[in-house]
Specification:
It is built from 9 helices and 15 strands. The protein has 330 residues and is of the alpha/beta class. The protein folds into 2 domains: 207 residues, DHBP synthase; 91 residues, 3-Layer(aba) Sandwich (Rossmann fold), CATH 3.40.50.11030. Bound molecules: adenosine monophosphate (AMP) and magnesium ion. Adenosine monophosphate (AMP) binds next to β6 and β10.
């Protein structure tokens, strides 16, 4: 299969619509990362998303809709706080989990009785979603466990020859995946940290919980149980800058090519992947730097940033999952 990469315009949107309604996959830009889109109502199309990504079968997908799309038939009611949050943050990088009415393919929610919905703010995502006018499931457009894609080129690197179309909407500015918020209880609960922070949610509706998976428990958001976001080279996450320098020279001595991933280089003259200063900058840079690093590095040595709170919850979650290994997502 030839993979076309096209700018977003009338012709490419018409092609995208034709492909989606025929059960094919189309990758598209959002403000967070690129998504791998399929018709949420079509069993075969949804199954294809799991196959092409190599995504574990128990990791549910988010359904994306345009701003005018009426989600009421898809969800079995919503608490009053959910409406306030929609008004405050949508369109934007916030995914809301509702009780499902089961109108989309049963493969979307992997056996859960909930449905997660997102209304992306990206103009090209909106143009695509309006053109197709059906709910589009879209996980990040990367091979399972690889670093999420923030340019059309990243998508092509993972899926060249495997999907027919990538709608190129430019680089994603947000950089990390949407906040996933459980809206089925009395108080909203963050299942995955992202650009819409706990503080922002609490400031609108008074309270916001954060879900922490207890050891041995079945995860509420299955994706959080998988290793994720990993570059193709070895990685390590360290708190201490001196230790990072030591590892750097050790790697060079072995004939390797180490890179530091950090806010400020602890020493002149080292190869550095700059992460940025603020939480927003770090979120926006993280995946691009990891993809850049894996092309040349034998080892990426990440130095844990000192910043905390707000967007840093999401940044540290992704950085840990990319560079430390252990449990994670796709
Ligand atoms: P991705 O699309 O790759 O960014 O991953 C989607 C994330 O949303 C994963 O962590 C999923 O586990 C989570 N998710 C999607 N749908 C649901 C749902 N119905 N309930 C809980 N978590 C969900
Ligand atoms: Mg993903």
């Amino acid at each position: 299969m030839k993979t076309e990469v096209l700018p977003v315009n009338e012709q490419s949107l018409a092609l995208a619509k034709q492909l989606i309604l025929a059960g094919e996959l189309v990758a598209f830009h959002t403000e967070t990362v690129y998504g791998l889109g399929a018709d949420a109502r079509n069993d075969e199309a949804v199954k294809k998303v799991f196959e092409v990504k190599g995504r574990p079968q128990d990791n549910p997908l988010i359904s994306h809709v345009h701003t005018e799309y009426d989600i009421t038939p898809l969800i079995d009611g919503e608490p009053p706080y959910a409406q306030a949050l929609r008004n405050a943050f949508l369109p934007g990088p916030l995914t809301m989990v509702y009780p499902s009415t089961g109108r989309v393919s049963k493969y979307v929610s992997c056996g859960l009785n909930t449905l997660s919905i997102r209304v992306p703010a990206s103009q090209s995502a909106q143009a695509f979603l309006r053109a197709v006018n059906v709910p589009i499931v879209a996980p990040s457009a990367n091979l399972s466990k690889h670093v999420s894609p923030v340019t059309a080129e990243h998508v092509l690197d993972d899926f060249n020859g495997k999907i027919p179309l990538i709608l190129d909407g430019g680089a994603c500015t947000g950089g990390i995946e949407s906040t996933v918020l459980d809206c089925t209880g009395n108080v909203p609960q963050i299942l995955r940290a992202g650009l819409v922070t706990r503080e922002m949610i609490a400031s609108v509706v008074g309270a916001c919980d954060v879900y922490h998976m207890a050891k041995g428990e079945k995860p509420k958001s299955p994706g959080m149980a998988y290793k994720h976001y990993s570059p193709r080279c070895e990685t390590v996450l360290l708190k201490d800058a001196d230790e990072a320098i030591e590892r750097y020279f050790e790697e060079e001595k072995k004939g390797g090519v180490p890179y530091l991933l950090c806010t400020r280089s602890p020493k002149e003259g080292l190869r550095v992947l700059p992460l940025g200063e603020s939480g927003e900058e770090m979120a926006s840079n993280l995946y691009a730097r990891l993809r850049e690093g894996e092309r040349n590095a034998t080892l990426i040595i990440a130095i844990e940033p000192n910043e905390r709170g707000g967007v840093m919850d999401g940044v540290l979650n992704r950085l840990t999952r990319a560079c430390k290994g252990g449990e994670d997502e796709t």
